[in-house]
């Protein structure tokens, strides 16, 4: 199933629009700004900076009439990634320290508190082997979000945070039936 998201320059789906069915690294080449959007199918991660940087927010089918009010980030959406539907198992190795150091645990399901479940104070690197995941800076799936697709991430900068101070405290699998 392909995804489809429509971005609008103004709040409440007003102004010029741009329809997207894939990744878009720079929405400003299509719109002056983006202050609302409608996800007609699929799942997307939207970013408040170009090139998939900055604050991230997971969107699934639905209407988002006021970007700033609903998501609480910068002035508007600047880029987006379509999240492919994953039908297989989910598997990730998380590490306490950068460069795959310290404690290691293999994760196959959602975790609302890394510290409570794995007795790790935080996660600073990981290897996503199967599936797509959203990482959260706080327990109970709260705080800033980061999208991870399969690959090795040696530190939080490689995870797209651009911030050495960022740590992850909970994680959730991205599947079409996941509750977000």
From TrEMBL:
The record places domain Beta/gamma crystallin 'Greek key' at 3-41, 42-84, 131-175
> Signal peptide location in the record?
none
Q: Which UniProt keywords apply?
A: Eye lens protein, Repeat
Q: Name one GO molecular function term.
A: structural constituent of eye lens
Q: Which InterPro entries match?
A: Beta/Gamma-Crystallin, Beta/gamma_crystallin, G_crystallin-like
**Could you confirm whether the keyword Repeat appears in this record?**
yes
Q: One matching Pfam family, short form?
A: Crystall
Q: Name the Gene Ontology biological process terms.
A: lens development in camera-type eye; visual perception
Similarity annotation: Belongs to the beta/gamma-crystallin family.
Q: What does this protein do?
A: Crystallins are the dominant structural components of the vertebrate eye lens.
**Protein known as:** Beta/gamma crystallin 'Greek key' domain-containing protein
Q: Where does this protein come from, organism-wise?
A: Oncorhynchus mykiss (Rainbow trout)
């Amino acid at each position: 199933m392909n995804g489809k998201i429509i971005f609008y320059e103004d709040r409440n789906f007003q102004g010029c629009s741009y329809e997207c069915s894939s990744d878009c690294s720079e929405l400003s080449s299509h719109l002056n700004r983006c202050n609302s959007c409608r996800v007609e199918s699929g799942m997307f991660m939207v970013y408040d900076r170009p090139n998939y940087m900055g604050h991230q927010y997971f969107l699934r089918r639905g209407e988002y009439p006021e970007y700033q009010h609903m998501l609480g980030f910068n002035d508007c959406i600047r880029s987006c990634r379509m999240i492919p539907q994953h039908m297989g198992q989910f598997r990730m190795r998380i590490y306490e320290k950068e460069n795959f150091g310290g404690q290691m645990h293999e994760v196959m399901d959602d975790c609302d508190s890394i510290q409570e479940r794995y007795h790790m104070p935080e996660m600073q690197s990981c290897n996503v082997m199967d599936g797509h995941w959203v990482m959260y800076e706080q327990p109970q799936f709260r705080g800033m979000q980061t999208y991870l697709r399969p690959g090795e991430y040696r530190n939080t900068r490689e995870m797209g945070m651009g911030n050495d101070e960022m740590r992850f405290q909970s994680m959730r699998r991205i599947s079409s039936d996941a509750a977000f």
